[in-house]
Write a structure and sequence with these properties.
Number of helices: 4
Number of domains: 1
Radius of gyration: 14 Å
CATH class: Alpha Beta
Strand content: under 5%
Domain SKI/SNO/DAC: 7-60
Protein name: SKI/SNO/DAC domain-containing protein
Structural class: mainly alpha
Organism: Panagrolaimus davidi
Shape: elongated
Pfam family, one: Ski_Sno_DHD
CATH topology: Mlu1-box Binding Protein, DNA-binding Domain
Order of helices and strands: HEHEHH
Strand order of the largest sheet: 1-2
InterPro entries: DNA-bd_dom_put_sf, SKI/SNO/DAC, Ski_DNA-bd_sf
Largest sheet: 2 strands, antiparallel
Length: 90
Amino acid sequence: MKDVHEDDVTHWIREYNIVDHMASHEQITSLKLNRAIPPELGSCGLMTKTNAERLVGALIDPNNYRILPADKRDKFDPILVGFKVLNNIR
């Protein structure tokens, strides 16, 4: 979501009390191998799929994200694919 401002992400993370957890060394290695994060990254936070869905939904349409219209759903689905990959790494 390159067109989203970092302040908006921070706002919704705080609004929803989303807590991220630091990835383990094994998770970071797996994320790098799957090209989900840049190879030079030393650490990253992970969140649950449910929280990722809430966050992305609010960023796409903050007023009506729970009832996204069809034209917005197309934009929403590809973003969640990336989060599903991260959600399944243990």
